[in-house]
Amino acid sequence: MSFEDKSFSVEQAFQFGWTQTIQYFGFFLLFQIVTSFVSSFISIFGLTGTFVNLLTQKIYLRVVDTEKASFDSDDLENSFPIFLPFLGATLLLALLVGFGFILLIIPGLYWALKYQFVPLILVDKKCGIMDAFTESARLTSGIKMQLLGFSLMMFGIVLLGILCLFVGLFIAIPTIGLAYAHVYRQLESQTI
What we know:
The chain has nine helices and no strands. About 80% of the residues lie in helices and about 0% in strands. α3 (about 45-65) crosses α6 (about 120-125) and α4 runs antiparallel to α6 (about 120-125).
């Protein structure tokens, strides 16, 4: 399959995210409350928030793969070995995109789109940091404009959640997270 043939369905991704969020609303609500509490009150130099992000990515991928939301002690135990690469990659990505925005915005936007799947790839494949960057570049090759539109739609959904007195974020966050993981799986299946 050539890169020009690669695509994903935005509608299907958001439909998946919405239906799974509604189906497992209690799970995601409780997960968000607990992880927000932990991140806010037990934060150790921001590392707790990064670890929560890693766990959240695992859960989103699990829902996409099995259509079942769950969390158990194995998730914690299996996350520790990939925590440092995940932290390193997210810091490197933030620096790269931040530097790109300093260089007249366009490079930062390009790098943000090109390397947006690095965290998911690290969680999914447990590979090295540079391998995750290479794989993300491969997945996003030729579809950056479609990914930009998808990202703007995700931003709009979060904005709507905020406008609903922030309560809407309890639905918006898992919906876009699941849609995002769904797009990752769609692109991964097309570029094997």
